[in-house]
């Protein structure tokens, strides 16, 4: 998508495998119900509709990768951050579906919503 940085599932997996210091922050912008069905390990729940109120929890010093189910909502999140902040985020092209299609692991999240 024009104007934002993107990566594919294989490249993200390689990035995560090399990230021994946990510097990559994975943000999942799907709904609570979608999130509860499975995530990329380490994915943090931050639904797209909450991003305008919660983006201050993110830092421009972090390496942020955002994903959703198909890559559309996460692209919107990346575009919002690019237009309104100095935060640079990368979109997972194809979203969680592409991750699954690549045969990569989807794990159960901690769904303690308290």
TrEMBL record:
Superkingdom assignment: Bacteria
Xref: Gene3D superfamilies: Rhodanese-like domain (3.40.250.10)
Protein name per its UniProtKB record: Rhodanese-like domain-containing protein
Any matching Pfam family: Rhodanese
Rhodanese domain residues: 20-108
SUPFAM superfamilies: Rhodanese/Cell cycle control phosphatase (SSF52821)
């Amino acid at each position: 998508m024009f104007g934002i940085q993107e990566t594919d599932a294989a490249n993200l997996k390689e990035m995560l495998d090399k990230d021994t210091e946990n510097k990559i922050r994975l943000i999942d912008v799907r709904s609570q119900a979608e999130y509860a069905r499975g995530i990329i390990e380490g994915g943090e729940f931050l639904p797209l509709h909450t991003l305008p109120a919660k983006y201050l929890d993110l830092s421009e010093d972090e390496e942020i990768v955002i994903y959703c189910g198909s890559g559309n909502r996460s692209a919107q999140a990346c575009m919002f951050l690019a237009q309104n902040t100095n935060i640079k985020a990368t979109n997972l092209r194809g979203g969680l579906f592409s991750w699954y299609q690549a045969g990569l692991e989807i794990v159960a999240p901690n769904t303690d919503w308290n």
